[in-house]
Specification:
The protein has 445 residues and is mainly α. The protein has a domain at 1-197: Preprotein translocase SecY subunit (Orthogonal Bundle), CATH 1.10.3370.10. The chain has 19 helices and 3 strands. It has helices spanning 2-13, 15-34, 48-55, 58-66, 82-97, 99-105, 108-140, 153-181, 186-197, 199-211, 220-243, 281-290, 292-296, 312-333, 336-345, 357-382, 384-389, 395-398, 403-444, and strands spanning 245-257, 260-274, 348-349. It has a 3-stranded antiparallel beta sheet with strand order 2-1-3. A hairpin with a 2-residue loop joins strand 1 (245-257) and strand 2 (260-274). The longest helix is centred in the last third of the chain and has 42 residues, at 403-444.
C-alpha cells in the first residue's frame, strides 16, 4: 500500500504525466456527460420500454453496455464509438486486398495519417447507415408510447440523424485527443469507461436477486461470495493471458559503442513475443461484426439465432471470429520480416538460425504456435458469460463475468498502467543520467 501511495506521489511530481492524466480524466468526463443527454424531441421519462428491451439480454444489452447505457437512454451518443470500430475493421480488412491501402501502410507516418483520414470518412458513412436504423427502431420496435416523442415525422428523423452523427464524430475526436495528448488508447478507454459505468447496477441487481426474500432459494450471501471468488480467479487468468510472453533468445556477436566495434560474444538478450499479441482488438472486431445480425434479422430470418448472446450458434460464431481476428491482427501488427532485418543490422542472431530470411521464418513459426493457444484461451474467456448464465447468474452481471467486458477492462487497464510506468521509468532513468553526468564532472575536477 505504501508503494502504491509513493507511486501516486511520483506521478503527481511529473508535470507532463500529471497533465496527461488530468486531460484524460476530463475528456472521459465530457464523454460520460454527453451520454446522459437524450435526443431532442424525446421525453426521457417515457423510455422505460427501451430500457426493458436492453435489460432482457441479447445483442441489445451488449450494445447498451458498450455505449455506457447511452443506447437505452436514446442519448445523443447512443451509437457511441462503435461506428468508428466498424470503420477500422473495414479499412484493415481492405488493407489486405487494396494495393493503395497497402502502399499507405508502408509509407510510415504520412501513410498512417491518410489511413486515419479514410477511417474517419468511413465512420461518418457507417453512422449515416446505422443512425436511421436506430431511429426507426426506437420509433417502431421497442414499444415506446406515442407521448415519448415530443416531435415526430421527418423533422425528428433528420434532426436525430444529424445529432447522432455529430455525437459519433465527437466521440471519435475525444478518443483521438486522449491517444495523442493523454494516457492510454483513447478509443479503448472510452469503451472501457462505458462498460464500467454499467458495473455497479449490474452487481447490485445480482446481489438483490440472491439475497432478497424472493431470491432466497438462490443461495444468498454465500452464493455471492462464491461468484466473487470465481470472478477474481477469472481476472487473474485474464491478466496472465494479457501479460504472458514467449522469450526468444538472441545473441549479439558485436556491438558498436562510441564508434568502436567491440566484441561481446556470449552477450544474450530476448525477443518477447506475447501470447496474445493482438490484445483486445480481436474481441472488439468480432463484437462489431456480431452486431450485424441485429440489423439484418428482419430481412434474413435465418440470422435470428445469432441474436441470442447466450445461444450456442452465437457463441460458436463469436469464438471462431475471435480466433480468426487474433491471427489476422497479429499478422498485420507484428512484422517478423522487419524484426529479422533489424536484428541482422544490429549484429544479433537467434542461436542455430541464420540471420535474415531463416530468422523471419523462425519468428513467424513461433508466433503462429503461441497465437493459436492464445486465441483459444481468449475465445474461451469471451464465451464464459453464456456459461455462467446457465448457473443462475443474472444476465447483466454475467456480461462482466469473463467475456468481452472483463477482457477489455483488464487489457485496457494493463496497457494504461504500463504506459504510466514507462513515464515513471523514463523519469527515473533521466535522473540517473544526470547524476552520472554530475558525478563525472565532479571527478574530472
Amino acid at each position: 500500500m505504501m508503494n502504491f501511495i509513493k507511486t501516486l506521489k511520483d506521478i503527481w511530481k511529473i508535470e507532463e504525466l500529471k497533465n496527461k492524466i488530468l486531460l484524460t480524466i476530463g475528456l472521459i468526463a465530457v464523454y460520460r456527460f454527453m451520454a446522459q443527454i437524450p435526443l431532442p424531441g424525446i421525453d426521457p421519462t417515457q423510455l422505460t420500454a427501451l430500457k426493458n428491451s436492453t435489460d432482457g439480454g441479447g445483442l441489445l444489452a451488449l450494445l447498451n453496455v458498450f455505449t455506457g447505457g447511452a443506447f437505452a437512454r436514446a442519448s445523443v451518443m447512443a451509437l457511441g464509438i462503435m461506428p468508428y470500430i466498424s470503420a477500422s475493421i473495414v479499412v484493415q480488412l481492405m488493407g489486405i486486398a487494396v494495393p493503395y491501402l497497402q502502399k499507405l501502410q508502408k509509407d510510415g507516418e504520412s501513410g498512417r495519417k491518410k489511413i486515419t483520414q479514410i477511417t474517419r470518412w468511413l465512420t461518418i458513412a457507417i453512422t449515416l447507415v446505422q443512425g436511421p436504423t436506430y431511429i426507426i427502431a426506437i420509433q417502431n420496435s421497442f414499444g415506446l408510447p406515442p407521448e415519448a416523442f415530443l416531435v415526430g415525422g421527418t423533422t425528428f428523423t433528420i434532426s436525430s440523424l444529424i445529432i447522432l452523427t455529430a455525437g459519433t464524430i465527437f466521440a471519435m475526436w475525444l478518443g483521438e485527443r486522449i491517444t495523442d495528448k493523454g494516457v492510454g488508447n483513447g478509443i479503448s478507454l472510452l469503451i472501457t469507461v462505458g462498460i464500467i459505468a454499467n458495473f455497479p447496477a449490474a452487481f447490485i441487481q445480482e446481489l438483490v436477486s440472491k439475497t432478497t426474500a424472493s431470491g432466497a432459494g438462490a443461495g444468498g450471501i454465500m452464493t455471492i461470495l462464491i461468484e466473487i471468488i470465481v470472478w477474481f480467479v477469472i481476472i487473474l487468468l485474464t491478466v496472465l493471458l494479457v501479460t504472458a510472453v514467449r522469450k526468444i533468445a538472441v545473441q549479439y556477436a558485436r556491438r558498436t559503442v562510441a564508434g568502436n566495434i567491440q566484441n561481446v560474444a556470449g552477450s544474450r538478450d530476448y525477443i518477447p513475443l506475447k501470447l496474445n499479441a493482438a490484445g483486445v482488438m480481436p474481441i472488439i472486431f468480432a463484437q462489431a461484426i456480431m452486431f450485424l445480425p441485429l440489423a439484418l434479422a428482419k430481412r434474413f430470418p435465418v440470422l435470428n439465432d445469432l441474436q441470442d448472446i447466450n445461444g450456442l450458434s452465437y457463441n460458436i460464431v463469436f469464438a471462431l471470429l475471435i480466433i480468426i481476428f487474433s491471427f489476422f491482427y497479429t499478422a498485420i501488427t507484428i512484422p517478423t520480416n522487419k524484426m529479422a532485418e533489424d536484428l541482422k543490422r544490429s549484429g544479433g542472431f537467434i542461436p542455430g538460425i541464420r540471420p535474415g530470411k531463416d530468422t523471419a521464418e523462425r519468428l513467424d513459426s513461433v508466433l503462429s504456435r503461441i497465437t493459436f493457444p492464445g486465441s483459444l484461451f481468449l475465445a474461451a474467456l469471451s464465451v464464459l458469460p453464456a456459461i455462467v448464465v446457465q448457473f443462475g447468474v443474472q444476465q447483466n452481471w454475467a456480461l462482466f463475468y469473463g467475456g468481452t467486458s472483463l477482457i477489455i477492462m483488464v487489457g485496457v487497464a494493463i496497457d494504461t498502467i504500463q504506459q504510466v510506468n514507462s513515464y515513471l521509468l523514463n523519469r527515473h532513468y533521466d535522473g540517473l543520467m544526470k547524476t552520472g553526468s554530475n558525478s563525472n564532472r565532479k571527478s574530472s575536477k
